[in-house]
Amino acid sequence: MNNNIKNQIQKIINFYKIENYEKAIELALQFLKTTPESDIVLNLLGLSYQKINRLDKSETSFKIANQINPNNISVLNNLGNNFKYRFNFDKAREFFLLALKKKPDYTEALLNLGNLEFAVNKNEKAIELFEKALKTNSKAIPVNLNLAIGYQSMGNFKKAIDHLTKINELNEKFTRADKMLSVLFDYKVEKKHYEKMINKMKLNLNNEQKIYLFFALGKANEDKSNYTEALEFFKKGNKLKRINSNYSIDKDIQLFSNIKLMFENFNFNLISKNFKKKPIFIVGMPRSGTTLIEQIISSHKYVKSLGEINFFNISAEQEFKKILNKTVSLDNFDMEHLRKTYENYLNNFEINKEFFTDKTLLNFFWIGFIKICYPKAKVIICLRDPKDNCFSIYKNLFDYEGAWCYDEKELSSYYRLFKNIIEFWKQKIPNELYEIKYEDLIERPEKNIRELIKYCELDWDESCLNFHKNKSAIKTLSVNQARKQIYKTSINSFKKYKETSDILFKDL
User: Fold this and answer.
1) Whether the Cβ atoms of residue 220 and residue 182 lie closer than 8 Å to each other
2) Distance between CA 286 and CA 393 in Å, rounded?
3) Positive or negative, the Cα torsion across 105, 109, 112, 115?
4) Predicted structure pTM score
5) I need a labelling partner for 24 at 20 to 30 A (CA). Which of 245, 296, 473, 488 fits?
6) What are the chain's domains?
7) Among positive and negative, which fits the CA dihedral 447, 450, 452, 455?
8) Does residue 501 register a pLDDT over 70?
């Protein structure tokens, strides 16, 4: 390879690294006009298309690269990711395994295959793959991070802490590890890690690193009952997180409005009730008790927990856009297609029980579509005191794209939108939705659990009262709390912070 070609490829790489994917694509296409047989540049082109969600074009680029050089394991791995992003997990698995056949210790493919298995709740298999990757590269932060996430979700907090501590040793600026540790530690007794985090404040950290550290220190100070200091850290973390987003709540206001307009005159009584499947959807705001509810229900011997699988809402949103753009009408949209799309995705999971739970929070947008596709579906709406709920959200760092989590006024507005659309669904589908208040559940657990199980049309199972013994993986921020017996300290927790009563969420 001559120097001119090397320089051209390096330019493409540089633009890719600084996330100028359009320029990387432009230069790659120019290069391929004169050198079409370059699997390296075709791979870069595919990666750039992938980053801007042009998965059709990225797939084409990777496939051509694979034809030119079938031994390029990076191309095989990227093809696997491409199919994973399209939710074609069988095809994704095929390419990850093909890459590993050619190079069994290929760390990236081991991690990607592990993450795929983790996504479909094959958690033991995922951890096995992560451990294999660890043997090939024990000092790789992504390997230790994936193991920490895997072990944490399975309730093995000791091993999770071990891997997170290892990450801290490898790179003290990787503050995501500190944030994860803060969920697992009780800082009334854990002092060493607290001091380490305080010392990290002196480091030259970028904004992302600061955000993780601020939220971690907020939680640590809350544990220590230093509520003024905790709130300041939470405010700093939220402010930085919000600045880095171009989110506008007006878009969500419009979305809520369009949904209501679309279903305003729809008659749910005309839907045939012959379809027998009864999936259990658990919806609500984050931090409203949804994980606890899922733990309770999935403790039943006939119920499988799927967690936040985040697929029905994706498919429903696509159908919604078609109707909104008048491609089809609500009265004649392809209900069967939506249902089959969802169930094809469910085939990736080993659902070996009669019932399953889908705890994707934002499915509350799509309750209308849920009841059209599954007229006998059970929809459980989790509610919590507005101030407690919103402040608990404010104290935590989420992966949601919507930045409404990080500004107290937007968070209050979003909560009101949530309540508004729930009231709309209750009017449209009366007596079919089940509301459960977190506070009621905590105060009278057995009574409310029995009523919940009855609503799901399940026979009583005593295991539901012992939900804390449920070994199902928990992949939410409630991973620690949901494995404990019911406790009351979360009720009126915002009142520990005097400022919240007067300043934050005062309009709720």
Assistant:
1) yes
2) 7
3) negative
4) 0.90
5) 245
6) 3-179 (1.25.40.10), 180-244 (no CATH), 278-502 (3.40.50.300)
7) negative
8) no
